[in-house]
Amino acid sequence: MNINVRTRPAPSHIEIHPSVLYVGTPIVLMTTCNADGSANITPMSSAWALSDRMVLGLQAAGQGAANVLRTRECVLNFPSAELWPQVENIAHTTGRDPVPNFKAAIGFVHCADKFALGNFTAQPSRCVMPPRIVECPLQMEAKLVAAHELGQDVDAPAGPALLSLEVRVLKVHALPSIVVPGTNHVDTAQWHPLFYVFRHYFSVGPDLGKTFRAEI
């Protein structure tokens, strides 16, 4: 039997209790339609993909969640790294009026036009009513498939429950500058998404390699 014998002591981990678990996820600017027909932008960082589905984590009392549950439509706009100041400009805002108490307590304010505040430009979508954001190089039009309540938000015990929203992506739009010419593949050397890591903004580093399933 071969045994891997360490020649030096293994590092010791310590138990920690971080206030958030955002180990490194992409920023998404989710656009939805308000009841009066205006558009809302929800900055979020809890999103992951599987096949043609995206799973989104949101607070149930947020305007974005309410809009998706009502209209069953949204657009997922993925900002590039250099857009982080514009994202941060709207990070403290909510489309809810009045502002929920738990959000007001941590500094959120109401904003009816986040496109103007963030200096973003709206463009029509193809399959859904919410607009896309011109400045975001990657955009996904989607429809709601299912919604699940996850329980109470430990960061806001007096606030709303958390939701997991499953959406199906209908169309993907990308700037030509981030697409490998003549293909449907995103050029990872040109695409620099904005990541949220323990409430700090980051971008990608050097390419370390690719998985065996990479097509290009």
Q: What average pLDDT do the residues reach? A: 91
Tally of DSSP helical segments: 4
Give the % helix: 10-25%
Spatial order of the strands forming the largest sheet: 3-2-6-11-12-5-4
Radius of gyration: 19 Å
For the sheet with most strands, the description reads: 7 strands, antiparallel
The number of distinct β-strands equals: 14
Topology order in helix (H) and strand (E) letters: EEEEEHEHEHEHEEEEEE
Indicate the structural class: mainly beta
Q: State the separation between the terminal residues, measured CA to CA.
A: 40 Å
Beta-strand proportion: 25-35%
Low-confidence stretches: none
Overall 3D form: globular
Explain this structure.
- The chain is mainly beta.
- Helices cover 12% and strands 34% of the residues.
- It has helices at residues 63-71, 84-91, 101-104, 114-117; strands spanning 25-26, 28-33, 39-44, 47-50, 53-59, 73-78, 93-94, 109-110, 122-123, 132-133, 138-152, 161-174, 195-197, 200-202.
- A 7-stranded antiparallel sheet has the order 3-2-6-11-12-5-4. A 3-stranded antiparallel sheet has the order 1-13-14, with no helix packed on it. Strands 7-8 form a two-stranded parallel sheet.
- The longest helix has 9 residues, at 63-71.
